[in-house]
Amino acid sequence: MSVGARVGEFFMAGNYACAEGAIAAGCRFYAGYPITPSSEIAEHMSKRLPQVAGHYVQMEDEIGSIAAILGASNAGLKVMTATSGPGFSLMMENIGLGVITETPCVIVDVQRGGPSTGLPTLVGQADMMQARWGSHGDYEIIAYAPNSVQEMFDLTIKAFNMAETFRTPVFVMADQIVAHMTDRLVIPPPEQIVLEDRRKPTAEDHPFLPFDFSQDFPPMAIAGGGYHVNVDSLTHDERGYPSSNPQVSEKMLEHLTGKIRDNAEKIVQVEDYRTGDAKVVIIAYGSTSRSALHAVKQARRAGRRVGLLRLVTPWPFPSREVERVASKAKAILVPEINYGQMEHPIREHADCRVVAIHHAAGTLVPPEKIYAAVEKVA
Known about the structure:
- The chain is an alpha/beta fold.
- The protein has helices at about 15-25, 40-50, 60-75, 85-100, 130-135, 150-165, 175-180, 245-260, 265, 290-300, 320-325, 345-350, 365-375, and strands spanning about 10-15, 25-30, 55-60, 80-85, 105-115, 120-125, 140-145, 170-175, 180-185, 270-275, 280-285, 305-310, 330-335, 355-360.
- The chain has 13 helices and 14 strands.
């Protein structure tokens, strides 16, 4: 077995593809707690990380898991953890810690049915708003929603790149269908994979400010690197020292939110399928987008002008792209495996009729259900 990143074509489940994407991205530390339906990620990382001189730690719970990866990231490693709904809830406080301390990390949430223990082994998409608003305070987040095994690999790499560049936690918002489906995966040679590494301070960064609010992406010193850095969960100034000064709070928050808002065009990613002439546009993400594409093709064969806008990055929300398709459409359909989450920001940015297609957790949204809604509004 290879001691590094694997290369070639494989027939692999989504969770294993995610783990391989992390290895290829340079992840060398994983701390986690097994939870269905993400457990295969932890299992695979426990086998693969020792082969690439990495470290795997099974923690006592999800609170410890997120704390461990934040510590390892500040020690200079690329880090990841994976969880599902209940564990995602437990991680929220320390996700806020990762935001305020600008600590790069990747968190994979394989969504399942809820609330509470819910449906541990079955699909759901009801963590989408939690990803954006789950931790308290003002902040922005980057999140990807893969819809295939290949994207579980590709978007995990992209998540690492965004985390390292933007110095922030980044989410991979998968779901049980995508995580457990098995499909073709192509892993390119390492030299063909573009990787971004965090910027470290140099002699030019003098005097060194570990949280320089004048830079979107200030360099990040690591523990043991010879720099004095105070990593604190309190509102802090550019040196990292706690401050209760409202002006300092404003500067810090402007920096934390601005570095993502001001670069949204570089982050936002959507997939457009025949929305140019569409009078009805379906907006979907994750596994639901696969059913939506099937429904669009069926409607096109029936002579309906229907298109699909897939949200690869639900956060930051692709407002311009939604406004663009809504300006030409008579109606937008939003199928989700929940009782209404991403439909709300879509309604805010659409000046046409928006029809939500709610679907209870446990099964994939059938293409027939989406097609029936298309026929009804068309």
